[in-house]
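Open question from group meeting: does this chain pack into something compact, or does most of it stay loose? Before anyone orders reagents, we agreed to write out a predicted structure and look at it together. Recording both the input and the output here so the notebook holds the full record.
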Amino acid sequence: MLAAAFEILQGSSTIPEPEPHIHFYLNKSGFWYLAAEAPPDLDKFALKIRSIGSPVSGEVWILAWGSRYGDNRTKMHARLYAFDGGSVRTVWSQDALHGGEIKVEGDRITVTYYDPAKWGIDPPNLEEYAITGTGLNRVR
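Structure tokens returned:
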């Protein structure tokens, strides 16, 4: 299995509207073919992609996150996709996290974001997730 991610930039050059794609390929008899594509639920977002070690045998897991160009409050959206060789499913998602950032370290994913009503007053919220066979389970 192989995963490939790319963006097609559209719109103006000052505030582009990317069309991101995450494709999953299989190799049969020496030829690679497109087996599945992640859903377009992150359309128009400038994405960052990270391969995550899958705890499920025979699956490829891809973490994708990003925000829209020109979004001055940087509302991050994130998805964790799993590809089993036949189809893609979303095993975890978060939407509209203000000032959101993601950090991956080993089998942990840390998400930080701000409460928009307390932006600049309170420290950011911090959530830590463990990577499990069912997706991400919050540990803190």
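Observations to bring back to the group:
The radius of gyration is 16 Å.
The beta strands are 2-11, 16-28, 31-37, 46-52, 60-67, 75-83, 88-105, 108-114, 125-132, 135-138.
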